[in-house]
Amino acid sequence: MTAELSFPRQQARTQRFSLGVPRAFTVAPDGSRVLFLRSASGTDRRTGLWSLDVETGQEAPLFDPFSDSEELSPEERARRERSRESAAGVVGYATDSALTVAAFALSGKVHVTDLAAGTTAELATPGPVIDPRPDPTGRHVAYAVVAGELRVVGVDGTGDRALAEPDGDEVTWGVAEFIAAEEMDRFRGYWWAPDGERLLAARVDNSPVQRWHIADPANPGTVPAEIAYPAAGTDNADVSLAVLGLDGSRVDVQWDRAAFPYLATAHWSAGGAPLLLVQSRDQRTQRILTVDPDTGSTAVLHEESDPQWVDIMPGVPAWTRDGRLVRIAAVDGAWRLVVGDDVLTPVGLQVRSVTSVTNEDVLVRASEGDPTQIHTYRVRKDGVERLSVADGVHAVVRGGEVTVRLSTGLGFFGTVTEIFRGSDRVGSVKSLAATPSITPNVQMLELGERGLRGALLLPTGYADGPLPVLLDPYGGPHAQRVVQTRNAFTASQWLADQGFAVLVVDGRGTPGRGPGWERAIHLDFAGATLDDQVDALHAAAAQFPFLDLSRVAIRGWSYGGYLSALAVLRRPDVFRAGIAGAPVTDWRLYDTHYTERYLGNPLERPEVYDANSLIDDAPKLSQDLMIIHGLADDNVVAAHTLRLSSALLAAGRPHTVLPLSGVTHMTPQEQVAENLLLLQVDFLKRSLG
């Protein structure tokens, strides 16, 4: 990275220093090789497929996309938006069980890599295509077609045929619907049987979903994009399942879809029958179902209910190979691992996800005491062993006796990726990421009577004297900003270096502290999350008297944007300025699964939506407010900002609106991302004086 680049430009060009970082690891079951994705440098968006020979430690490129130009269908663009993917090239891949072949989509075409020979072939298939996946035996590749079909082809390109075709204009097969991808982290729409002879496939009918239109005001000749957006209280897509055979057979899967319309996840492994996790519309009850693939009948294996909501936990449900159910459950105030009838983790360990299951053990990620750290653990019936050693945030991927361990921490930039065979370190994977031009100096804090976790960053070289304070939160449920990883605070340090004390706080609703902590925001976004920011600010000022409470601002994006606007509207006694990026301003305009989980259905609880939305607060604005919104945003649509701005104008309240033409909920464009930071700093300095 050249020294001439400013930090904002460097951060934008490197996509927040994510380019060049190895990711998406798969380990061969015999431990011979590790596959991963990585771009060629810290500024190269073109991601390629790589292989590492565990025995020799040699890395080899399997496929280089060569060109930065891509031809992406609107459906693939939407898929990447849902997964927050801003790189180019090979951004995802799938393999067979033995890691002999890999498949991926590039510019809407199916590509298959022979992993032994290291050669890649483009298959002649109808396109554009989405999400190609080899079957577990490595003989066929299934893929979804933008036109709605789910098809299959031999890995040699022969025998291409449709397994399912849409029976309506709004019907698709094998693709996750908007709600599943945006809110459930389910990006798949089909799952292969272990023997490679059948697939469990989702049929999605979007016809019940209301239509919204995303216009491009900067280009009035462009026809607005029509999207199916299920806003809170409106109809969702109709999702069903069928077992599709390579022989042309179809068996429809039966469950009580009226009572449990949400398909949260599906799992089909060698350990047993297919598993489904389905939820009720109010998300207070969910069931784990087993599927008989021959008849389509289902049986309830486990049911869970909660008066507030139930959670979808990553990596579960799953089977052990000997047929025991693996799940994560709220037991005695903690998220605990349950295998069969046995609760295997202690109350003090908050399990976050399951990453690998065998008959002998389960690998999990969890927090123990300190929610700012996430460690990896091996859980057996006779005890729990922590695998990660150093403070920080860790993850693990396993295949046979080989594991890939990924570690981040406050003491170094980026991710350290190490290869272990058993307990012996046998290699590493290089990161080609750029090094930020600034080094965060982070003080981790525990604040107030609730022990709110915070991070304080001061200007580099700060000696003494009062400092204006900038709160820099996300603040919403099920997401964290205060974690022990250096890269998380680079932008906050740059903001601090502009003359601010920057305080980042995770309040109630954030993960790592147990079900009760997360559910404390039920029906009360506006109260709980704002109170926690204010309480943390005052507790920090009591500890650090140089924090000038007469000059306090707040900035944030998405939920953080909502929180920033909320802060200046409802607590002008505390906040002199706010920057609201892509804010939700009226929760009736946000999607069903997220919003109804926390606030209920607006048709049943209109008073809750009124209390948590911002439009009626417009006449209260007495401080400086900048609102930023991408006009192409199909997640938090620009109507949120426009409605708040209209209400502010009607009330005669001055404010600033910065519309971003052609920008979605992400801001990957280099110049836009850089100038956004610069404009925010200018606004803050003028507002705080």
From TrEMBL:
<dbReference type="InterPro" id="IPR001375">
    <property type="entry name" value="Peptidase_S9_cat"/>
</dbReference>
<feature type="domain" description="Peptidase S9 prolyl oligopeptidase catalytic">
    <location>
        <begin position="492"/>
        <end position="688"/>
    </location>
</feature>
<dbReference type="Pfam" id="PF00326">
    <property type="entry name" value="Peptidase_S9"/>
</dbReference>
<protein>
    <submittedName>
        <fullName>Prolyl oligopeptidase family serine peptidase</fullName>
    </submittedName>
</protein>
<dbReference type="Pfam" id="PF00930">
    <property type="entry name" value="DPPIV_N"/>
</dbReference>
<dbReference type="InterPro" id="IPR002469">
    <property type="entry name" value="Peptidase_S9B_N"/>
</dbReference>
<feature type="domain" description="Dipeptidylpeptidase IV N-terminal">
    <location>
        <begin position="106"/>
        <end position="388"/>
    </location>
</feature>
<dbReference type="InterPro" id="IPR050278">
    <property type="entry name" value="Serine_Prot_S9B/DPPIV"/>
</dbReference>
<feature type="compositionally biased region" description="Basic and acidic residues">
    <location>
        <begin position="74"/>
        <end position="85"/>
    </location>
</feature>
<feature type="region of interest" description="Disordered">
    <location>
        <begin position="60"/>
        <end position="85"/>
    </location>
</feature>
<dbReference type="InterPro" id="IPR029058">
    <property type="entry name" value="AB_hydrolase_fold"/>
</dbReference>
